[in-house]
Amino acid sequence: MPKVSIISNSEEETQLCAERLAGQLKAGDIVFLQGDLGQGRRPCKRFSQGFKIAPKKVNSPTFVLMNYYRAKLPIYHFDLYRLGNPKELDTLDFDEYFYGEGISLIEWPERLGEHAPKQYYLVEFKHKGEHQRTICISYPSKPQLKSSL
């Protein structure tokens, strides 16, 4: 997967990066979010603004596996932290979400196991200092980008 690394020196720069990526996504896109424990909701709140969703409406779906947000395209926010076994996903129609008319944001994507899709964006957040972080974005082999990040 092609990869872009960005150094963010502030919350504002990180927000701008999330908004730009959000603007690139289209129906059926899947975004894996990785970073230090507790980083998931913050990136989802950042992406939410890119989708014109008020950040205060974005809550962690830790106890329900998925939250749905109404936007121009449906947003499906998965938090798989408490998923004990990927087989538990067999009871959900996750394909309907992953490959449907919305965008899926997935925290703890490594817990998908055999259910992991072949095409996805990977966004990794790594702390470098109090306000500085590295954001690494890996793109699917053939992303349909609208403009450059």
Question: Descriptors for this entry?
Answer:
149 residues, alpha/beta, seven-stranded mixed sheet, 26% strand
Question: Concise description?
Answer:
The protein is α/β, with parallel strands linked by helices and 149 residues long. The protein has helices spanning 11-24, 41-50, 94-98, and strands at residues 3-8, 30-35, 66-69, 75-79, 103-107, 121-127, 133-138.
Write the layout of secondary structure elements.
Layout: E1 3-8, H1 11-24, E2 30-35, H2 41-50, E3 66-69, E4 75-79, H3 94-98, E5 103-107, E6 121-127, E7 133-138
Shape: globular
Radius of gyration from the CA trace? 14 Å
Number of DSSP strands? 7
Total helical segments: 3
> Going across the major beta sheet, what is the strand order?
1-7-6-2-5-4-3
Helix content: 10-25%
What are the segments in which pLDDT stays under 50 over at least 5 consecutive residues? 145-149
Report the mean per-residue pLDDT as an integer: 80
Tell me the span between the first and last alpha carbons. Answer: 16 Å
What percentage of amino acids are in beta strands?
Answer: 25-35%
- Structural class determined from secondary elements: alpha/beta
Sketch the major β-sheet.
7 strands, mixed
What's the order of the H and E elements? EHEHEEHEEE
